[in-house]
Write a structure and sequence with these properties.
RNA-binding, eight-stranded mixed beta sheet, three-stranded antiparallel beta sheet, KH_dom_type_1_sf, about 400 residues, 3'-5' exonuclease domain-containing protein, alpha/beta
Length: about 400
C-alpha cells in the first residue's frame, strides 16, 4: 500500500554523470511507518556480504539512555525512509532489527550514537556496530540557529508547490524540533581539513547548513533563499513568539511527545528530517577521505557505540575494534591505536574535575588530542569517558586525576 507520507532525499550524482554546479539530485521517496518486520526490506533484515548497505540511522524516545523509552528508529535508504515504531511493534519488532544493527555488512550513518547505543544495549541486548558517527551541536544554539535554519535549511521541495506559505511554516516548526538542523559531521569534516594540511582544533565544528552549502562536501544551493527572506519580513514578532511557544511545549513541557499514537504529520516529518540528509553527506565526504581517515572514522564510531555501555566484561562481548591497516603500520607516521578509558571520580570530586564553567576540561582538551564525555543527569554518574589515541588518553586521565587532588 502506498504511503501517504513523502519527502525528498538529496542523492549524490552517479560517477559517470557530469555534476551540476552546486546542485544535488533530489529524489522523492515515501516515508513508511513500520509496525511489523515484514514491512522492512529483506536485505536489511537479512544482512549479506553480497549486498552491503549504507543507511541513515537515528532513534527517538523519552529520556533515551539505559532506562528511558525507545519510541522510534529511523532508517534512511536511498529509495525510502522507514520509521520503525517500537511502541506499536514492541520488542519483537526491535529484535527483528538486531542482525542489521549488529552487522558489519550494513553501515549505519548516525549523529551522536552514544545514548542510542546505550538504550539498545541495556534494553534490548543489541550491540550497535559498524557506525559512522556524526556529532551534534548543543540545542542552546536554537534561538540563534532557528533564523539560519529558516533561511537555508528549509527543504527545497516546499518551495515548488502551491502551498508555499502554509507548508513553509510547518517545516519551520519541524526544523525547530529536529536535531538535524544543528548537526555537523565534525569528525569527517575535520579529517578532510587535516588531510588538506589544516590543524584540527578541539571542539571545532561546521554547521549542518554550512556543510550542505560547501561545494566540496554538500554543494546544495538554496536558490529560494531570497524567497524565504521576503517571507520572513512578512512575519510578525507575535507569530515568532507563538512558534517558540509550540517548540517549548513539545520539547520542554511534553517529554512524552514521541510516545503519542498515531504519529502526527509533525512527528513523521521531524523523524524523517533527522535522517534524510545523512546518506548524501556521507557519500560526499567519504569520497574525499584517505585510508587513514577512513580507519579513524570507523574506530571512533565503534568507541562511541561502547562509550556509555560499560559492563563487568570490559567490552569483551563487543566486536573487536577495527585494526590499523597493515600498509599504515609500515608508514613512518603510522596512526596510534585508539581506546576508550573510563575514569571513576570519587563522590564530591566531579566539580574539581570540571572546574568553574568547565575551565579544567577545556584546558585538558587543549593539551590532549582526546575527547572527554560525562554521563550527566542520565548517568552513569561519577564517571568520565575518554576517547582517543592511547598515549593521549593516558595523558588526559593523569591530568584529570591531578584535578581530583585539588581543593575546589
Amino acid at each position: 500500500m502506498a504511503s501517504p507520507h513523502k519527502t525528498h532525499i538529496p542523492l549524490p550524482p552517479d560517477p559517470g554523470d557530469k555534476p551540476s554546479e552546486n546542485e544535488a539530485c533530489l529524489s522523492t521517496v515515501p516515508i513508511h511507518v513500520v509496525t511489523h518486520a515484514s514491512q522492512l526490506p529483506a536485505e536489511f533484515l537479512q544482512p549479506s556480504s553480497e549486498r552491503q548497505l549504507v543507511i541513515g540511522f537515528d532513534c527517538e524516545g523519552v529520556d533515551l539512555c539505559r532506562q528511558g523509552t525507545l519510541c522510534i528508529m529511523q532508517l534512511a535508504f536511498p529509495d525510502a525512509i522507514y520509521l520503525v515504531d517500537a511502541i506499536e511493534g514492541g520488542e519483537t519488532l526491535v529484535q527483528a532489527c538486531k542482525p542489521a544493527l549488529e552487522s558489519s555488512y550494513i553501515t549505519k550513518v548516525i549523529h551522536d550514537c552514544k545514548r542510542d547505543s546505550e538504550a539498545l544495549y541495556f534494553q534490548f541486548g543489541i550491540k550497535l556496530h559498524n557506525v559512522v558517527d556524526t556529532q551534534s551541536t548543543s540545542l542552546y544554539t536554537f534561538v540563534m540557529g532557528l533564523c539560519v535554519c529558516v533561511h537555508a535549511c528549509v527543504g527545497r521541495e516546499l518551495f515548488s508547490g502551491e502551498n508555499f506559505v502554509a507548508e513553509s511554516w510547518c517545516t519551520i516548526a519541524t526544523i525547530a524540533l529536529s536535531p538535524l538542523a544543528f548537526i555537523n559531521l565534525w569528525i569527517a569534516y575535520s579529517l578532510i581539513k587535516e588531510q588538506e594540511g589544516q590543524k584540527r582544533v578541539p571542539d571545532d565544528y561546521i554547521s549542518f547548513v554550512g556543510l550542505l552549502a560547501d561545494p566540496r562536501f554538500g554543494g546544495i544551493s538554496y536558490v529560494e533563499k531570497e524567497e524565504v527572506r521576503v517571507l520572513l519580513r512578512q512575519v510578525s514578532f507575535d507569530f515568532l513568539l507563538c512558534l517558540l511557544d509550540v517548540v517549548v511545549l513539545y520539547v520542554i513541557h511534553d517529554p512524552n511527545f514521541w510516545t503519542y499514537r498515531p504519529l502526527s504529520e509533525l512527528m513523521v516529518r521531524a523523524a524523517a528530517d533527522d535522517v534524510r540528509f545523512l546518506l548524501f553527506i556521507y557519500h560526499k565526504m567519504v569520497e574525499k577521505l584517505n585510508e587513514r581517515s577512513l580507519w579513524y572514522l570507523a574506530v571512533r564510531g565503534a568507541l562511541y557505540c561502547r562509550c556509555f555501555c560499560i559492563n563487568d566484561s570490559d567490552y569483551a562481548d563487543w566486536p573487536a575494534l577495527p585494526p590499523v591497516p597493515d600498509n599504515l603500520i609500515a608508514d613512518e607516521n603510522a596512526p596510534e591505536e585508539e581506546t576508550l578509558y573510563v575514569l571513576d571520580v570519587p563522590k564530591g570530586k566531579m566539580g574539581c574535575v570540571i572546574g568553574k564553567r568547565g575551565a579544567n576540561i577545556l584546558s585538558i582538551k587543549e593539551s590532549c588530542s582526546a575527547e572527554i564525555f560525562f554521563g550527566g543527569d542520565k548517568g552513569p554518574p561519577d564517571k568520565v569517558f575518554i576517547i582517543g589515541p592511547v598515549k593521549q588518553v593516558r595523558k588526559a586521565a593523569a591530568m584529570l586525576r591531578g584535578r581530583m587532588l585539588q581543593m575546589y
